[in-house]
Design goal:
The chain is mainly beta. The chain folds into 4 domains: 94 residues, Immunoglobulin-like (Sandwich); 104 residues, Sandwich (Immunoglobulin-like); 113 residues, Immunoglobulin-like, CATH 2.60.40; 116 residues, Sandwich (Immunoglobulin-like), CATH 2.60.40. The strands form 9 sheets. Strands 10, 11, 12, 13, 14, 15, 16 and 17 form an 8-stranded mixed β-sheet that branches. The radius of gyration is 35 Å and the shape is extended.
């Protein structure tokens, strides 16, 4: 009996010992204090900020905590620019900014901004908006140039655009392509910009949509805006307006006498009837119609029927291309005109609304250059209703109705209307619901094309007059609009009170 109790006591002891060991093995993370989100505190800097008569080579900043440098290229700004930017390094609680002395000019005010590049090395809390100013002369430059940038064709403010200043007395046009400017600024969300700390000089100013961030102009792909003459820095200047345009990617907006001509062949590809046939010439073409939703009209009333070719045709037998429609339950032949361009055939017809059509391509309707017949096909589709579209009437002021003014009505990337104004009322029907923009441009040289200008030739773009707002087209609605010019988006290339506005940028008077 005693032996039994001894064994039980021994077992209990072993269990208790194991439990103790297991409790000791549990890993409990150490507890710490709250997250330190306070930014680094600047304790001292050498030399001190805003020093005169010094060619500062190195700036040393001391902080109360360990710091590091993050995203320097997107945060640092230097005014005026140097050929080689300063180097900025963090060492423990110290930040060193080094400049090349030989690049500094006499009697010049320099301003270095690091934005949010200095952060503590644990929580990444930034020491925000650090700036340092010094002058190599006996005074600080304090003049300014300011203004706004808008897109020439939309009239809307442009954000994130680079504004560059070159000294007028040394400027050559080629510098835009190969030499960095003296001063750099960027537009805010409202398209506004402001240069500060400028010397009293004349400058050439340019606005560049700087896609590659090299502070220079790429004529092949970047938009640009410029003033015809120089700007002069002043204590408080009036605003300059720069309008951006695309130079080399020439937007050939031409004058034609047809409605919806530019968008005629922009067909939806969501539903495409496609030939599936055996043999060498299978998949030879496709037809851009919705063959699935026969009960619901999906085919646009203002577009031709497109047959997209995947083979080069030798001949077409139009007598074997049939287009018919249901008229009171009876199938009737529809008059159609066939046109052909590279890669497609187009059947043009005055489509009836809410009508079922059938396209039949019978054997032998087309032969390719290899002598192979394209397969036959049959496609049934239904057109949309008039109620699926909007109607728009635009009333134009008499000063615009002449041989020089061209009206554009644009929806997304499609030009809905593009004609010289000969009447004070423009009416458009069968418009898709959605937003559209109305604008005029003055075809100054009478070539029928909107000319975007050329900065190297000092040629400004032909001026565009914007309607005051976008128009929201609604299905089944008739919209009446009085064209109203927006002075704020088109005050000419300049709005400074120290010079006269060019008459060619004024709105015509009644």
């Amino acid at each position: 009996m005693k032996a039994f109790f001894k064994e039980r006591i021994k077992d209990i002891f072993v269990v208790l010992l194991l439990m103790q060991l297991m409790s000791c093995a549990n890993i409990v993370p150490p507890t710490g204090g709250d997250m330190d989100t306070t930014p680094p505190k600047l304790l001292s800097m050498s030399p001190k900020d805003s020093v005169l008569n010094q060619r500062v080579k190195k700036i040393v900043l001391h902080f109360n905590k360990f710091v590091e440098i993050k995203d320097l290229s997107s945060n640092m700004a230097l005014s005026p620019l140097l050929e080689y930017p300063p180097t900025v390094i963090a060492i423990g609680k110290r930040v060193e900014i080094k400049l090349t002395d030989s690049l500094l000019k006499d009697n010049t005010t320099y301003k270095i901004s690091l934005g949010n590049a200095i952060t503590d090395n644990r929580e990444r809390t930034p020491y925000a908006d650090f700036t340092y100013t010094f002058s190599t002369g006996s005074y600080f430059d304090s003049l300014q140039v300011k203004g706004q940038v808008r897109d020439m064709l939309t009239g809307m403010p442009d954000t994130g655009i680079s504004l560059v200043l070159y000294y007028e007395d040394t400027f050559k046009d080629s510098m835009l392509l190969s030499k960095k400017p003296a001063y750099l600024a960027r537009t805010d969300v409202g398209g506004n910009f402001k240069f500060t700390g400028l010397p009293q000089r004349s400058f050439r100013i340019f606005a560049i949509a700087d896609a590659d961030n090299n502070n220079m102009y790429d004529i092949t792909k970047e938009r640009i805006g410029f003033l015809d003459s120089s700007v002069v820095s002043k204590p408080e200047t009036d605003s300059s307006m720069l309008l951006l345009y695309t130079s080399m990617a020439r937007q050939r907006i031409s004058v034609r006498d047809s409605l919806l001509n530019d968008s005629l062949y922009r067909l939806a590809r969501k539903y495409v009837g496609r030939v599936v046939s055996k043999g060498k010439n299978a998949m030879a073409y496709s037809v851009a119609v919705d063959t699935i939703s026969k009960e619901r009209g999906t085919f646009e009333l203002n577009t031709p029927l497109q047959i997209k070719l995947n083979a080069v045709l030798k001949s077409i037998d139009s007598s074997k291309v049939f287009l018919s429609y249901l008229n009171s339950g009876v199938e009737a032949e529809a008059a159609r005109k066939i046109t052909h361009d590279t890669g497609s055939l187009y059947l043009q017809h005055t489509w009836l609304p809410e009508t079922q059509y059938t396209l039949r391509l019978v054997k032998g309707w087309a032969v390719d250059t290899a002598g192979l017949e394209l397969p036959p096909g049959r496609y049934t589709f239904r057109t949309k209703s008039f109620d699926d579209y909007a109607k728009l009437q635009v009333k134009i002021g008499k000063p615009y109705v002449d041989s020089q003014h061209v009206m554009l009505i644009i929806q997304d990337k499609d030009t809905l209307y593009n004609k010289t104004l000969t009447d004070s009322m423009v009416t458009l029907q069968l418009l898709k619901p959605g937003k559209c923009r109305i604008m005029l441009f003055k075809d100054t040289n009478g070539n029928g094309i909107w000319d975007p200008g050329h900065v190297l030739l000092q040629r400004q773009p032909e001026f565009v007059f914007q309607h005051e707002s976008e128009i929201i087209l609604k299905a089944g609605w008739e919209h009446e609009v009085d064209f109203k010019y927006v002075p704020a988006s088109a005050q000419g290339m300049r709005t400074r009170t120290d010079s006269k506005k060019d008459d060619k940028f004024k709105e015509p008077k009644e």
